[in-house]
Amino acid sequence: MKGLFSNQVSKKVKSITLSTAFIGGACISSLPALAASELESTALAGSSLITYSSQQHLKSNQNYYFDQNAAQLIERTEKAINWYKEIVSNGGFIPLQISELLELGSTGKEVNLLAERLYQERDLKNNACTDAECTFDQQIEQAVKQFQRRHGLKVDGRVGKRTVAKLNVPAKVKLNKLKLNFYRITNFAGSSDEQYVYVNIPEYTLRYVKAGEVKLQNNVIVGKPSWKTPAFSDEIEKFVVNPEWRIPTSIATKEIAPKVAKDPHYLAKNDIEVRKNSYLDSKTVNPSNIDWQAIKPYQFDHFLVKRAGDENPLGEVKYLFPNPEAIYVHDTPAKQRFGQTQRALSHGCIRVEKPFSLAREIIKHQGETHTLKQMDEARVNDTTQTFHLDEPLPIHLVYWTAWVDEDMLVNFRDDIYQHDTKALLNDEEQSVIAALIK
After folding, report:
1. What is the model's pLDDT at position 62?
2. H/E stretch holding 220
3. Which CATH number do you get for residue 349?
């Protein structure tokens, strides 16, 4: 769309920002039924399925836009609920008592039981381990890898303590988890958006959806349990190439001040300056004039800003959707952390693995090729440049710990913030459980 972006530039000389051109907070905290042939992968085969209960209402309201990605997610998840009900009614999963690591080539009764358990959720499509002693072969290894992938575990095909613990989660617990998340998914604010970004916090994943199709999927890092990333909806208004980091007062007083007290050159070494009255103030304060030892948590008269550069924790780009929580999406120089399976590591903001992929998708789908050139030039020339979206892009931060993905795999994730345990569950007969998420 012509005119979607506008931009402002500030020059940098020897990595020192002379002026900035952005405002941003600091991080502190008719639905088609699926064919039976499509349900033969993990978890949806052989079950008596029902369709999404609101389908007729949506069909009757022709003027209401309902995102097909969200609609299909709802339908798949409800079908999974009914399938897990059958598993529970049939006695649930067999318990495993595995004392040693099982891997390719292992043999014995434990492998037989493992194969049977993997077959119960159809990670193993055919169970040949019925009577005779079974060998842990490549089919079982692939089944283990699929199970690990569905549960957010390290995918290595080996059955150790963490994998055994997930295999021993009772079917009733998984059913209740699906019910709770069905409630969350059916209340997804993005279901009426034609294009949007959403981040599933427990999955550590960001997606960009346009016209019902996932155009981009990216790994992310979210807030650690002591600095939870909140679930909310907003709109991306702009993104900044080569941003400064406006250090929040909590970090400035609790983490940085003690370091400066021990090392008076700490700020200079880390390219941090003290601005007098605000983050945007051109007046700076000499750090030697501040009694850093006397600073108490959250009590600081000035503002710390880390200049743009290779060591800036925001990396090369940040996406801003101004909100009371001061949360945004940004790059990070610590790329190695994306190799971890558990990525609740930040102070609340969302770090994205491929930071410019989102900007490129937005630009591509809006036909703004000149903006792409300007963005690339800012990176090459080492300038701080802000790109404003004339039409803000909805972004939704969600907390889903169970869902069915596009490949019909039933996914489960750890309740990293203990929101599931705090939810009020309404059991048994209801297809949608009542839940209160705080």
Report:
1. 59
2. strand 213-223
3. 2.40.440.10
